[in-house]
Amino acid sequence: MKILSTAVLCGCIILCSLSVSAQNDVPINQPDLNKPKLFSDLPDRIDFNPTQLVNLFNLQLGDNASVVLTTSFTLVGPVVSTANNANAVSVVIKCTNRPGARLTFTRVTNDDNTVKYIGRIISLQHGDTYEIIAENNHYYFQKKGLYDLVNE
């Protein structure tokens, strides 16, 4: 009888430990590398002059924007967010002609009064994005994969 009760006790301990360890497993999100491309018709790099876009900072929530980056690439849509503080001004546009995409464009003024522009065009439903890159005061949109910018 002592052996039977010891076996039952060991069995209960094993079942309880399996139950507890199963509850502590954290699900891992695997990147979906098969998402459709939103910008497959565009080049990997698009040069632009950010001063041509500064008028976006004057727009209000709900205003419609039209951002011409090249003759074949224009973003159209309403302003869905704006922010303005001492060192930065930012605007977010929901692109209606590239469904799911958002353009985020920000001007940062440093303490020495130098100006830097940052931003991206991103859609979480698609596998490609554009990020603003600056090299020697020359700006361009660089195409990147979604998971190069976002970790899920």
Descriptive notes:
There is one protein chain. By secondary structure, the protein is an alpha+beta fold. The protein has a domain of 105 residues. 17% of the residues lie in helices and 41% in strands. Strands 1-8-7-6-5-4-3-2 form an 8-stranded antiparallel β-sheet. The longest helix has 22 residues. It is globular.
Helix segment tally? 2
The main sheet comes to: 8 strands, antiparallel
Q: Strand pairing plus helix content: what structural class?
A: alpha+beta
Helical proportion?
A: 10-25%
Stretches where pLDDT is under 50 for at least 5 consecutive residues are none
The outline comes out as: globular
Whole-number mean pLDDT:
83
Radius of gyration: 25 Å
Note the beta-strand portion.
35-45%
What is the terminal-to-terminal distance? 54 Å
**Assembly type of the shown chains?**
single chain
Strand and helix map with partners:
Blueprint: H1 2-23, E1 45-48, E2 64-70, E3 73-84, E4 88-94, E5 102-109, E6 115-122, E7 128-135, E8 138-145, H2 146-149
Antiparallel strand pairs: 1-8, 2-3, 3-4, 4-5, 5-6, 6-7, 7-8
Structure characteristics:
alpha+beta, 17% helix, 152 residues, 8 strands, eight-stranded antiparallel β-sheet, 41% strand, single chain
